[in-house]
C-alpha cells in the first residue's frame, strides 16, 4: 500500500489522507471519544487593542475582542495610573474614558480583564499616551465705580484697587489656575513707583494734577502651563479743581421727642488745596428741630416734641474752596415721648473712653445721658408738674398733705409726680422721724420665713421696739401728712429715688429730700420691704434688701442690722 501511495500524485495523496482522518474522527465519535478543546491549541484569550495616543480632555472609546469563549463573558476595564472609565454594562466589551488635563506627554496602561461562564480568565493591556493641548488663560480686570461720578471716572487723590482675581484658565491643572501676574502702566502720570506689580490686585493712588488725565494699566496673566493673556483697563482721573469733597451725614436714627439727634457728619477732600470745607446742616419735615451749631459738621440737634411719629430729613452740605458742592442726608424718626411711670437715673453726663463730660459725645452714641427724661430736662424741653433736678419731678406737701411752693422751707412729705408715690421726709428734731434713728427689719407676714428682729444690734429710736413694723405703726397712728397707709417701699420704688447724676452726696435730690444723711458717711442704707434669698438658713430668709444712698447700689443686709427707714404710700 505504501508503495502504491508513493506512485500517486502529491495532490491525490493529500486528499486521501484527509479522507482517512475524517473517517477516523467519525469512528472515535461514535465510540464516545474524540478531541477536546484542551487537546487542541485553540485557548480562550482577550485583545485590548493596539497602543494609541489622544489629546487631553478628549473622549477615548475602548473595545475588546475575545477568542474561544465558553458562554457569556464579563469584562472589567482599569488603568494605571487610575482614570475614570465609563463602563455601565460589564457584559459588553466596549467602554469609554475622558483623558485628563496634563502638562506633558503622559502614559497610562489600560487593561481589560475577561472571564467567561466556564471560569476561564484572560487579560490584555495597551498603552494610552495623553498629550497636552493647552488653552490660553483669560485675563480680566475689575474696578468698582466711584459713587456719584460717571462710570470709569474717579477723583484725584483716592485709592483704587484693580482686581485681577477673576482671571481664569479653563484647562488649569491646579487649584491656582493663574501662576503669575504682571501689571504695567501704559498711559498717564506714573503711579506704580514703589508698588508691587506681581500680585493678583493692584492698589494705586490717583494723581493730584491741574488737568484731567487718563491712566491705562495692562495685566498679563500666565497659567501653570506657560500660556499667557493680556488685557487693559483705562480710567479717567479728575483734576484737583474738579474733584468734589466727600460728605457723610451719618446714620439714620429713631428716638423720642426732646432727645438728642446725633449729627456726626464729616466733610473732607482728597485734595489738600480744596480745604477748608464749609458745611451747613439743614432739615425738612413737619416739625422743627433745634440744630446746635448748624455750620459744624459734627454736632447735634434737639428733637422736637411731637404728638405722633414724625419723620425728619437732615441734610449736610459741604462746599470746597473750588466751589464744588456735595450734599448727603440722613433720616430721623421722632416718636412722642412716652408717659413716664418710672424715674430716669438722673444721669446727664456723657462718657468717653477716659472721662465724663457735660458735652455731647457723638463718638459714643446711645448713652444714658443722651436719652430719656434727664436728657429732655437738660435740653429744657421736659414738662413737669413740679420741680426737681434733671428728670425728677417732685412736689412738696405740708403736714396736711397740701401742696407747698417749691421754695417752702418747711414740708413733711414729697409727692413724686412721675410714679405717683408719696414719700416721708426725715427730720432733725429728735422726734419720731429723725434721720439718726436706726431700725432692725421685722415683719410678721411676707417675711421669707423669718420675721426678723424686734430690736436688732445698735438700733435706736423713740419707740419701745426699734423695728420696721413698729415704725410703720407709729407713723400711721400719727397720720403723717393726713395719710394712714404708710409702708416700706419695695426695691424698685426705693431705687427710683437714687440720683446717679449727682456729683455731690448723698445720691438723692436734697432739695426735696433733706436730712437723708451726712455726705461724709461711708454708707447710708435704707430698708426695703423685700426679704433676700441670700442668707437663707433652715429655709428662712435671714436677710432683706436695702439701698445705699452714698454709692447708689443695693445689697442684702441681716435683718438684725440697724438701718434707716423712708416710708412710702400710694403710687400708680
Compact description:
This protein is mainly β and 572 residues long. It is built from 5 helices and 33 strands.
Number of extended strands:
33
Number of helices: 5
**Major sheet: size, sense and barrel closure?**
4 strands, mixed
Helix/strand structural class:
mainly beta
* Neighbour order of strands in the largest sheet: 2-9-8-5
Ranges where pLDDT stays below 50 over 5 or more residues in a row are 1-40
Q: Report how far apart the termini are.
A: 147 Å
Keywords: Signal
Protein name: Lcl C-terminal domain-containing protein
InterPro entries: Ig-like_fold (IPR013783), KIAA0319-like (IPR029865), Lcl_C (IPR011460)
Q: Key terms for this structure?
A:
572 residues, mainly beta, Immunoglobulin-like, 4 domains, four-stranded mixed sheet, 33% strand, disordered N terminus, KIAA0319-like, Ig-like_fold, Lcl_C
Give a description of the structure.
This protein is mainly β and 572 residues long. It has four domains: 45-131, Immunoglobulin-like; 153-237, Sandwich (Immunoglobulin-like); 246-381, Sandwich (Immunoglobulin-like), CATH 2.60.40; 384-572, no CATH class. 9% of the residues lie in helices and 33% in strands. It has five helices and 33 strands. The chain has helices at 2-7, 10-30, 372-378, 468-478, 491-495; strands at 45-47, 52-55, 59-62, 65-67, 73-80, 85-86, 95-98, 106-116, 121-131, 153-154, 159-163, 178-187, 201-205, 213-223, 228-237, 246-248, 253-256, 260-264, 266-268, 278-285, 290-292, 298-302, 310-319, 325-335, 350-351, 356-357, 394-397, 413-416, 421-424, 525-537, 540-548, 554-558, 568-570. The strands form eleven sheets. The chain has a four-stranded mixed β-sheet, with no helix packed on it. The chain has a four-stranded mixed β-sheet with strand order 10-15-14-12, with no helix packed on it. A hairpin with a 4-residue loop joins strand 25 and strand 26 (356-357). The longest helix has 21 residues, at 10-30. The radius of gyration is 50 Å and the shape is elongated. 32% of the residues are buried. Mean pLDDT is 91; it is low at 1-40. Keywords: Signal. It comes from Alteromonas alba. This is Lcl C-terminal domain-containing protein. Residues 413-569 form the Lcl C-terminal domain. Residues 1-30 form the signal peptide.
Amino acid at each position: 500500500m505504501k508503495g502504491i501511495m508513493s506512485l500517486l500524485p502529491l495532490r491525490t495523496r493529500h486528499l486521501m489522507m484527509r479522507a482517512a482522518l475524517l473517517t477516523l474522527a467519525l469512528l472515535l465519535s461514535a465510540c464516545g471519544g474524540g478531541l477536546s478543546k484542551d487537546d487542541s491549541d485553540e485557548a480562550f484569550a482577550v485583545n485590548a487593542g493596539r497602543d494609541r495616543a489622544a489629546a487631553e480632555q478628549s473622549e477615548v472609546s475602548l473595545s475588546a475582542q475575545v477568542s474561544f469563549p465558553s458562554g457569556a463573558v464579563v469584562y472589567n476595564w482599569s488603568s494605571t495610573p487610575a482614570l475614570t472609565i465609563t463602563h455601565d454594562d460589564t457584559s459588553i466589551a466596549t467602554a469609554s474614558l475622558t483623558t485628563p488635563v496634563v502638562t506633558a506627554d503622559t502614559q497610562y496602561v489600560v487593561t481589560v480583564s475577561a472571564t467567561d461562564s466556564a471560569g476561564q480568565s484572560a487579560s490584555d493591556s495597551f498603552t494610552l499616551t495623553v498629550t497636552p493641548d493647552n488653552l490660553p488663560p483669560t485675563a480680566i480686570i475689575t474696578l468698582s465705580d466711584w459713587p456719584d461720578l460717571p462710570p470709569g471716572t474717579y477723583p484725584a487723590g483716592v485709592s483704587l484697587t484693580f482686581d485681577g482675581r477673576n482671571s481664569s484658565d479653563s484647562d488649569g491643572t491646579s487649584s491656582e489656575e493663574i501662576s503669575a501676574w504682571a501689571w504695567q502702566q501704559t498711559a498717564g502720570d506714573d503711579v506704580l513707583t514703589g508698588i508691587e506689580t506681581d500680585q493678583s490686585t493692584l492698589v494705586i493712588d490717583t494723581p493730584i494734577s491741574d488737568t484731567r488725565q487718563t491712566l491705562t494699566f495692562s495685566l498679563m496673566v500666565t497659567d501653570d502651563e506657560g500660556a499667557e493673556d493680556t488685557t487693559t483697563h483705562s480710567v479717567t482721573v479728575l483734576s484737583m479743581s474738579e474733584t468734589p469733597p466727600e460728605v457723610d451725614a451719618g446714620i439714620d436714627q429713631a428716638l423720642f421727642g426732646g432727645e438728642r439727634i446725633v449729627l456726626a457728619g464729616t466733610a473732607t477732600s482728597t485734595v489738600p488745596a480744596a480745604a477748608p470745607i464749609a458745611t451747613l446742616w439743614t432739615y425738612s419735615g413737619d416739625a422743627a428741630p433745634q440744630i446746635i451749631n448748624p455750620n459744624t459738621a459734627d454736632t447735634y440737634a434737639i428733637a422736637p416734641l411731637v404728638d405722633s411719629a414724625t419723620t425728619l430729613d437732615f441734610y449736610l452740605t459741604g462746599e470746597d474752596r473750588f466751589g464744588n458742592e456735595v450734599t448727603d442726608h440722613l433720616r430721623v424718626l421722632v416718636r412722642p415721648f412716652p408717659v413716664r411711670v418710672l424715674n430716669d437715673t438722673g444721669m446727664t453726663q456723657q462718657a468717653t473712653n477716659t472721662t465724663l463730660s457735660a458735652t455731647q459725645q457723638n463718638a459714643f452714641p446711645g448713652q444714658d445721658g443722651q436719652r430719656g427724661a434727664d436728657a429732655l430736662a437738660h435740653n429744657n424741653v421736659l414738662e413737669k408738674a413740679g420741680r426737681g433736678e434733671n428728670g425728677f419731678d417732685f412736689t412738696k406737701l405740708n403736714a396736711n398733705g397740701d401742696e407747698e411752693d417749691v421754695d417752702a422751707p418747711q414740708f413733711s412729705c414729697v409727692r413724686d409726680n412721675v410714679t405717683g408715690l408719696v414719700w416721708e421726709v426725715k427730720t432733725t428734731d429728735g422726734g419720731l422721724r429723725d434721720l439718726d434713728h436706726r431700725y432692725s427689719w421685722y415683719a410678721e407676714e411676707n417675711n421669707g420665713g423669718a420675721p426678723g428682729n424686734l430690736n436688732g444690734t445698735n438700733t435706736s429710736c423713740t419707740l419701745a421696739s426699734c423695728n420696721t413694723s413698729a415704725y410703720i405703726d407709729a407713723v400711721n397712728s400719727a397720720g403723717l401728712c393726713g395719710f394712714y397707709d404708710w409702708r416700706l417701699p419695695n426695691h424698685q420704688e426705693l431705687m427710683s429715688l437714687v440720683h446717679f447724676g449727682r456729683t455731690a452726696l448723698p445720691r438723692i435730690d436734697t432739695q426735696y429730700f433733706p436730712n437723708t444723711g451726712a455726705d461724709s458717711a461711708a454708707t447710708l442704707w435704707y430698708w426695703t420691704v423685700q426679704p433676700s434669698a441670700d442668707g437663707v438658713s433652715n429655709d428662712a430668709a435671714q436677710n432683706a434688701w436695702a439701698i445705699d444712698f452714698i454709692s447708689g447700689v443695693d445689697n442684702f443686709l441681716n435683718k438684725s442690722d440697724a438701718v434707716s427707714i423712708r416710708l412710702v404710700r400710694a403710687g400708680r
